Amino acid sequence: MSDIEEARKAMIAKRFGGNTKGASTGGSGTVRRKNKGSIKAGADDKKLSGVLKKMALTDIKGVEEVNIFKNDGTVIHITGPKIQASIPSNTYVVSGSTENRRIEELIPGILSQLGPESMDYLRSYADMMKAATGGAGAMDSVEEGEEEDDEVPDLVENFEEAAAK
């Protein structure tokens, strides 16, 4: 058996250059490895811009701000957006710097943009604020004053006679 083991060691030495640790990787005489390309973060942006170019998007100018309303009462607010559209494919691209804000922060300027869901949210928010401040009594007194102004006065004289004069 020792003859077989010696023959085996001689064959390994012949095949692998006498290295008793096994096949050598690297070192002198091996092919130089090319550098691995680093993964670029902008690769996704390049792919996206390539796809958008194929869709033949057209720029829409004159838009000052974009508001995207969410169900939880927050708004994605984009000022100075770049808007591109492809009407045949029903695709719109809105890009720019974004801010997440509450609906209450943007209230005076966005009332015309609100849908029924947002109006319901605002009503519940107003009720919550009224309950928190205890302003129910103050609102009642204002409503009473408005009711007095809304009443139509009784007719005292005949307007037809006044018009005939």
Mean pLDDT: 75
Give the overall silhouette.
elongated
Rg result: 39 Å
Q: What summary fits the major beta sheet?
A: 3 strands, antiparallel
Number of distinct beta strands: 6
- Whole-Å distance between the termini? 145 Å
Total count of helical runs of at least 4 residues: 6
Question: Which range best describes the helical content: under 10%, 10-25%, 25-40%, 40-55%, 55-70% or over 70%?
Answer: 40-55%
List SSEs in N-to-C order.
Answer: HHEEEEEEHHHH
Quick summary:
The chain has helices at residues 2-16, 43-54, 107-110, 116-133, 136-150, 159-164, and strands spanning 58-60, 65-69, 74-79, 82-86, 91-95, 98-102.
Question: Please, could you describe this protein's structure?
Answer:
The chain has 165 residues and is α+β, with helices and mostly antiparallel strands. It is built from 6 helices and 6 strands. The protein has a 3-stranded antiparallel sheet with strand order 1-4-5, with no helix packed on it. It has a 3-stranded antiparallel sheet with strand order 2-3-6, with no helix packed on it. A hairpin with a 4-residue loop joins strand 4 and strand 5. The N and C termini lie far apart (145 Å). About 6% of the residues have low confidence.
